[in-house]
Amino acid sequence: MRVCIIKRKQLLEFNNNRYIFGGGASEMNLEELLVLEKHLEIWICQIRSTKMEIMFKEIQLLRNKEGILKAANQYLLDKMEENVEFTNIQAVMGNIPYPLTIQNEIFQI
């Protein structure tokens, strides 16, 4: 009896593999089709679970990249502001004559 059950399971697995990889379902009986259906449901569930894990990992990687890019962007914005402030100071200082120079108006006739 036990040997028959094991043989039957092996035959079902063989048939499942055969039908999955190109055999015809028209040769399967109802029990074999039900077993195959159950296996397919389990495989689909496992595939979806694996797909979701991969997608969550990719989302996390993208969030990390986003954080890095935001930090780099902020750093560059800060540098630009420093350069603008420095340029503005130079422009203001350019309008003030250097204290040791003599203005041209004194020497005009």
UniProtKB/TrEMBL annotation:
Listed Pfam families: K-box
Domain K-box: 1-86
GO terms for MF: DNA-binding transcription factor activity
GO cellular component: nucleus
Bilayer-spanning residue ranges: none
Protein name according to UniProt: K-box domain-containing protein
Organism: Linum tenue
